[in-house]
TrEMBL record, chain B:
Major location (coarse): membrane
Classification via InterPro entries: ABC_BtuC-like (IPR037294), ABC_transptr_permease_BtuC (IPR000522)
Keyword Iron: yes
Biological process, per Gene Ontology: siderophore-iron import into cell
An annotated Gene Ontology molecular function: transmembrane transporter activity
Transmembrane spans: 43-65, 86-119, 131-153, 179-197, 217-250, 262-283, 289-308
Metal-binding as UniProt keyword: no
UniProt entry keywords in alphabetical sequence: Cell membrane, Ion transport, Iron, Iron transport, Membrane, Transmembrane, Transmembrane helix, Transport
Family, per entry: Belongs to the binding-protein-dependent transport system permease family. FecCD subfamily.
Protein name per the record: Iron ABC transporter permease
Bilayer topology term: Multi-pass membrane protein
The species this protein was found in: Parageobacillus galactosidasius
Cellular component annotations (GO), alphabetically ordered: plasma membrane
Length: 316, 315
């Protein structure tokens, strides 16, 4: 099978899952069901694309296949920023503030933070990948602890006002963000498309990329900003799903066996959509909501991660 | 040592007199019934459980680091805590009305099995990078705890589980903490075995050559670690990174002689938890912040510092 046919097969799978999700098992008011389901589908497609794209780009930049933005704690940074805003300005400002404005402010902070983190962590030479990974994971825990710490410092009454605004899931999404999120993701993906050839070269490593005439520093910094924006969008929409990016990116690499990012990116996005829509179908219709999707994704992803870590250590 | 001890006494006394119910020394001397009751029912149990939990978790970390010869292994970074939580959940589901002793037994069995599995994985990994091992351990813990969440969600036990996720001393009153006394004899055993742990840490071959039954020593160590962790998780909750940072900081200044360092580690662990607890009680007085969060923030911060620092020495 050539890569094109593989992608076509994948898109057919994704489309048919979406159709099954939309049109089967309809009981009650059709208009209402269709509306709420298509909102869910939109959110899943958007987050799937955002997570897949950000992970593939991040892994190309850092040149390894086990680091992902969420494993090293990018999405806990987003949570931290959200809480920090409430902590400083109080929950009334948050509820008064337009959801979109608040979202854009958080994204702004997030980008600044990502660039800072990058310059501290990845600039130093001679860092082994395990070191980065461990530091990243501990940083994730650190940010999470600081977040919950601040949440405790906030007046308990205020905290309940903001709690469900901060922790979304697929059953409790922030639909009011869908439009802005869609626009942002479309812009970012458009921007990525213009960088696809650079990405192919970047996957050869820093030295080769520079040799081949890629303006390394500038490109990496810009791509990292794109990653930060995409992570913020997906976290804002549905909350953190730690291992989704890891799973879809690695499955895409093994499935497509190519270095070309035009295929890899599309493939990973389609896998993400399949995983999310399929997973949500299973959760809703088989488990009848008895377990959240993120728990299943993290369980499978964690085992897969450990497996890759132990088995294929020599590969990187 | 002396300075540490004085600090410890000061903090312990302070801990007794901080709280919503005001107690002054003068009242106490006159033995006012109310105040004495507050002391006996709440303050003293709290103080004792802080001391025991802090000291025993730090010792656990020290033992694990000695046995695995890796400075970054601890109950938090080897999945022991997560396994103990899974065990508690299982005992909640299977034996709903179980007493604390049964719960702690099941938790212990899970924690022991989990730590054994982790140690086996370590033996399988031939090339031992100091950084790689805690990474595997944390991942292992993540998998276990997502299994816990899965079942907890299914049986509507998320709330009970999350109370074990963040350590909290505010629920400790007379009658609810006595289980912690179980770890006192374990600490004594640990002290008696200190020299043997040191030798076992040199590796199986050297230890056997020196006339030691390597396997049984390692097992004793793991049993102590698993039992203490389960007791602490069940009564207080998780104290993340405590077993990691305290032994590291102590051995940084006092060297690696286990028998000498062990009491110091216990003392510093108790001091650290006491200080964190007092801080958590004062900062949003009259409310309080659970100890798990304070320890989590400081603990992960110090761990990051240690990582970067050790790395620099390395390179």
């Amino acid at each position: 099978m050539s890569n094109k046919t593989k992608l076509i097969v994948l898109s057919i799978a994704a489309l048919s899952l979406i159709m099954v999700f939309l049109f089967t098992d309809v009981k009650g008011n059709w208009d209402y069901i269709f509306r709420s389901r298509s909102e869910k589908i939109a959110a899943m497609v958007l987050t799937g694309c955002a997570i897949a794209a950000s992970t593939v780009i991040f892994q190309t930049i850092t040149n390894n296949r086990i680091l992902t933005p969420s494993i090293i704690g990018f999405d806990s940074v987003y949570m931290l920023i959200q809480t920090f805003v409430v902590f400083i300005f109080g929950s009334t400002t948050l509820t008064m503030m337009n959801a979109n404005v608040q979202f854009l402010v958080s994204v702004g902070f997030m980008v600044g933070f990502a660039v800072l983190l990058y310059s501290i962590l990845f600039k130093q030479e001679e860092q082994t990948i395990y070191f980065l990974l461990l530091v990243g994971m501990i940083m994730g825990t650190f940010f999470q602890s600081v977040t919950s710490f601040m949440q405790f410092l906030i007046d308990p009454n205020e905290f309940f006002v903001i709690q469900d605004r901060m922790f979304a899931s697929f059953n409790n999404m922030k639909t009011e963000l869908l439009l802005v999120a869609g626009i942002v993701i479309a812009l970012m993906i458009g921007y990525i498309v213009s960088y696809i050839r650079y990405l192919d070269v970047l996957s050869l490593g820093k030295e080769h990329a520079i040799n081949l005439g890629v303006p390394y520093e500038k490109t990496v910094k810009r791509l990292l900003i794109v990653v930060a924006v995409l992570v913020s969008v997906s976290t804002a929409l549905v909350g953190p799903i730690t291992f989704l990016g890891f799973i879809v990116a690695n499955v895409a690499y093994t499935f497509l066996q190519t270095y070309r990012h035009s295929y890899l990116l599309v493939g990973a996005m389609l896998f993400a959509i399949v995983a999310l829509v399929g997973g949500q179908l299973v959760v809703e219709r088989v488990f009848t909501f008895s377990t959240p999707l993120t728990v299943i994704v993290n369980l499978i992803g964690g085992i897969y991660f450990l497996y890759l870590l132990l088995r294929e250590r020599k590969a990187w | 040592m002396k300075k540490l001890f004085i600090l410890f006494v000061i903090l312990a006394v302070a801990s007794l007199f901080i709280g919503v119910q005001h107690i002054s020394l003068a009242d106490l001397l006159m033995l006012k019934a109310d105040d004495v009751e507050v002391l006996i029912i709440s303050r003293i149990p709290r103080l004792i459980s802080i001391i025991i939990a802090g000291a025993s978790m730090s010792i656990c970390g020290l033992i694990m680091q000695q046995l695995s010869q890796n400075k970054f292994v601890s109950p938090t970074t080897a999945g022991t805590m997560d396994c103990a939580r899974l065990g508690i959940l299982v005992s909640l589901i299977l034996f709903a009305s179980a007493g604390p002793l049964l719960k702690v037994t099941v938790a212990f069995l899970f924690a022991f099995a989990g730590t054994m599995i982790f140690m086996r994985i370590l033996e399988k990994v031939k090339y031992k990078d100091a950084i790689f091992i805690p990474l595997v351990g944390l991942m292992f813990g993540n998998i276990i705890s997502s299994m816990t969440t899965f079942f907890a969600y299914k049986y509507n036990l998320i709330q009970s589980i999350s109370s074990w996720l963040h350590g909290d001393f505010s629920m400790i009153i007379k009658g609810r903490y006595e289980l912690l006394y179980l770890s006192v004899p374990l600490m004594i055993v640990a002290y008696m075995y200190a020299n043997r742990f040191t030798i076992a840490g040199m590796g199986e071959e050297i230890a056997t050559n020196l006339g030691l039954h390597y396997r049984s020593i390692v097992n004793v160590g793991l049993i102590i670690v698993a039992a203490t962790s389960s007791v602490v998780v069940l009564t207080v909750g998780t104290l993340p990174f405590l077993g990691l940072i305290i032994p590291n900081l102590v051995t940084l200044y006092y060297g690696d002689h286990l028998e000498k360092v062990l009491p110091l580690t216990a003392l510093s662990g108790a001091i650290f938890v006491l200080a964190c607890d007092i801080f958590g009680r004062v900062v949003i007085y009259p409310y309080e912040i659970p100890i798990g969060l304070t320890v989590g923030v400081i603990g992960s911060g110090v761990f990051l510092y240690l990582l970067v620092r050790r790395r620099k020495q390395y390179v």
